[in-house]
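Notes, p. 3: input format for complexes.
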Amino acid sequence: MRIALGADHAGFEYKDRIAQSLRDRGHDVLDFGTHDATPVDYPQYGFAVGEAVATGQADRGIVVCGSSLGIAIAANKVPGVRCAPVAEPYSVELARRHNDANVIAFSERLTGWEMIERMLEVYLTTPFDGGRHAYRVEQLFEFGDAQRARTIKDLERGEVTGAQTPKELFSAS
Ligand code: RB5
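Output follows (173 residues plus D-ribose):
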């Protein structure tokens, strides 16, 4: 796979180690930086990786910041991106199987390197389950004016309506 990488000054060391690990596994790496500890703004790196994935320049993305949170929020601003901030392998598996996560966010300050390696393996090898999950993932990208109007009506009524997956999609997966 071709994998886009980005990190701020609090994540570049892991980002560089991840780049090496990906190359060792035979993947292509698109490294958007940063490359040293000079303070930089994590949103720009989240946007860059997100755009690379959304435009098809990369198959997947990995972003790293101090906490994993800010850079994940930034990546998720790019339409088409499904970025999950993760700290252990089971969340990574579910992010792939249920959410078809195409970007994953790691924390350099809170997560040990051995855990990163385990999560990386799961991220690279776990497929998307599709079926009912695809039906739901599609809805993530319906959030525009029409969906917003519908949600506002739901708020007025005090309940969410029409949120049930068709039954046949359960037997298919
Ligand atoms: C940088 O100090 C830190 O705020 C950043 O790496 C990240 O954790 C933001 O969410």
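The chain has a mean pLDDT of 96.
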